[in-house]
Amino acid sequence: MRTTASFLRVIVVALLGYLFLNWVGTTGENSAFIEQPWVWAIYVFTVFFHIAGEVCIAALQRILYQTLLPEAKKRYDEKAALKKVNRFKWFKETYTAALGSKAIEEELEIILDHDYDGIRELDNKLPPWWVYGFYGTILFAVVYLVRFEVLNDYSQIEEYEIAVAEANIEIEKWKKTAKNLVDATTVSMLTEASDLKAGQKIFTSKCVACHKADGGGGIGPNLTDSHWILGGGIKNVFNTISEGGRSGKGMISWKSELKPLEMAQVSSYVLSFQGTTPAEPKDAEGDLWVDPEIQE
Q1: Last residue within a domain, chosen from 86, 114, 132
Q2: How many CB atoms lie within 10 A of CB 216?
Q3: Cα–Cα distance, 142 to 25 (Å, whole number)
Q4: What is the pLDDT confidence band of residue 107, given thresholds at 50, 70 and 90?
Q5: Pick from 86, 109, 127: which residue ends a domain?
Q6: Distances (CA, A) of 26 to 18, 31, 40, 93
Q7: Does residue 217 come out as left (phi exceeding 0), alpha (psi in the -120 to 50 range) or beta?
């Protein structure tokens, strides 16, 4: 890099010197280098002097680099090593002092008397982290004893009940944003107007042909009475819509066309027919179904 810079400087000086001497020394039509040959002597001397200067500077730099750089690098390495040694020096010294450890040549001062098969034990202190951790457990035990045994704070049963109540709240929040993840075991009755309206729309487009608009029944059974062929309640109705009715003569499975949320919505809408009076009710089919949760 230094050689390239020196070469470029020599070229620039030679070019500028040529242009300057030619401009100053030219008086006629011909170049100053033709009219006045002494200009060549000035030009050659100037270029030679500059080349010699560049060579001397490069040699001086090389000498300084070879002599001073190792010393500077050595000082830098010594400072870096000293800085590394002194890093966390206070912490290391404090920790070592807390341990009470002794150098190998001073271990006779802390050696215990008992001897087992030539093996002797040093009376070293426990590590600070262990000691203060043990003190922390004592403090925790005292606070716990006062809080729960003296001041009679909440019991484990109360803590469990609070956790269950909080979990139920979280579950309800989750259900509002994850309705499409339900299945026949987790589905619950939807009561919001938007869900029932969506269920009515699905029922009108896919179920009216067999069950009529008022749920009185046609090809399919009556949905307004308390008799169910495959069981009533939101879980059974959802499962029937999802998997289909009786093989060969029941309702087809809708799980390939309806999303879980849509099946939950139409199931909830179907159950809204319970207790209503259709225009032309079909005779009851199946068994009388009583919700076991209500029965309990």
Answers
A1: 86
A2: 20
A3: 104
A4: confident
A5: 86
A6: 12, 6, 13, 82
A7: left
Predicted confidence (pLDDT) per residue in 275-294, tens digit: 899 999 999 888 898 877 66
For residue 279, the enclosing domain spans 181-295
Query: What's the one-letter identity of residue 49?
Result: F
Highest mean pLDDT among 141-155, 178-192, 239-253: 141-155
| Token code pair at residue 196 | 């029932």
The answer to whether the pTM exceeds 0.85 is no
Whether 53 maps to a domain, the answer reads yes
Cα gap 266→196, rounded to integer Å: 7
Percent of the chain surpassing pLDDT 90:
35
Comparing 108 with 166, which gets the higher pLDDT? 166
- The Cβ of residue 173 has, within 10 Å, a number of other Cβ atoms equal to 10
